């Protein structure tokens, strides 16, 4: 029995290793060739940081990068505020109304991004005729707020359901007005959901290409749209360098978040006992 268990364990570990190799081998190859001295995508001729230096000298990429960060931060903050307020409102609805609104909340997530992108593009074209709206920063910001908003609602609502409603009522009994009770009692309780919704919004906004492609126009571009335009001509080694930096930053953030969550879980366990 022991030998059978060992064989099963070795087989499962081997299978897991092959899956991870399949997932991460393309990324590893990209990272290796970001340090390639030549522009070749087949032969590694020597180690260099040249493409990283050229990357930070590329005005188009740098401008697109800061545009992406600006849109991601603004859309995430606005969507987090609106989504939290919407979640609080939805949680206080009656069952039938709440179910209807939730179905409408799920729809933008299930809907293909190309449909959302085309729909928003047509909407902005029609608004341009009435209000003179131009494709650029404003249209991209509105579009990003629109498609990340449901993620905030769906992250905050479970925390509102888990919260003991008597805490809010107790705060009112102790002299707090409704606004102060929400600010001092409800928000701290649902803060993990708010933070998770913000992170999801930021990530999806940072990564979005399809919707942004339809609503950005020629005067304002985010990083995914710029990369797409560059790759259509030829894969520049600077793209490999940029992708490597993004991957490493996301990996470090993920590690830090896991460490923080592990410490929080440990503290909660210690308090419990």
Key traits:
mainly alpha, 273 residues, 83% helix
Q: Can you describe what's shown?
A:
With 273 residues, the protein is mainly α. It has eleven helices and no strands. The chain has helices at 2-33, 50-57, 59-91, 95-110, 113-131, 137-162, 165-173, 178-207, 210-215, 223-233, 237-272. The radius of gyration is 24 Å and the shape is globular. The mean pLDDT is 84.
Question: What's this, in brief?
Answer:
This protein is mainly α and 273 residues long. It is 83% helix and 0% strand.
Please report the number of helical segments.
11
Largest sheet, strands/sense/barrel: none
List how many beta strands DSSP finds.
0
Mean pLDDT: 84
Kindly provide the radius of gyration, computed on alpha-carbon positions and rounded to a whole number of angstroms. Answer: 24 Å
Morphology call: globular
Secondary-structure map:
Blueprint: H1 2-33, H2 50-57, H3 59-91, H4 95-110, H5 113-131, H6 137-162, H7 165-173, H8 178-207, H9 210-215, H10 223-233, H11 237-272
Helix pairs in contact: 1-11, 2-11, 3-6, 3-8, 3-10, 4-6, 6-8, 7-8
């Amino acid at each position: 029995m022991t030998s059978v268990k060992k064989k099963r364990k070795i087989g499962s570990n081997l299978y897991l290793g092959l899956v991870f190799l399949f997932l991460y081998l393309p990324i590893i190859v990209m990272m290796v060739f970001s340090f390639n001295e030549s522009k070749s995508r087949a032969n590694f001729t020597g180690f260099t940081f040249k493409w990283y230096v050229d990357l930070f000298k590329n005005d188009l990429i740098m401008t697109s990068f800061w545009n992406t960060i600006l849109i991601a931060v603004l859309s995430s903050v606005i969507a987090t505020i609106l989504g939290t307020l919407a979640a609080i409102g939805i949680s206080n609805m009656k069952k039938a109304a709440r179910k209807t609104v939730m179905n409408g909340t799920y729809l933008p997530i299930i809907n293909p991004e190309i449909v959302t992108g085309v729909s928003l593009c047509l909407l902005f074209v029609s608004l341009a005729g009435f209000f003179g709206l131009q494709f650029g920063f404003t249209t991209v910001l509105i579009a990003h707020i629109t498609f990340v908003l449901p993620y905030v609602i769906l992250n905050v609502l479970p925390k509102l359901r888990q919260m003991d409603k008597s805490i809010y009522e107790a705060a009112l009994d102790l002299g707090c007005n409704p606004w102060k009770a929400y600010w001092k009692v409800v928000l701290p309780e649902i803060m993990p959901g708010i933070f998770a919704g913000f992170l999801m919004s930021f990530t999806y906004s940072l990564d979005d290409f399809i919707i942004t492609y339809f609503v950005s126009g020629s005067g304002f571009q985010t990083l995914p749209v710029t990369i797409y335009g560059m790759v259509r001509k030829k894969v520049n080694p600077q793209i490999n360098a940029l992708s490597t930096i993004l991957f490493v930053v996301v990996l470090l953030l993920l590690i830090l978040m896991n460490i923080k969550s592990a410490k929080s879980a440990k503290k909660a366990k210690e308090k419990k006992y």
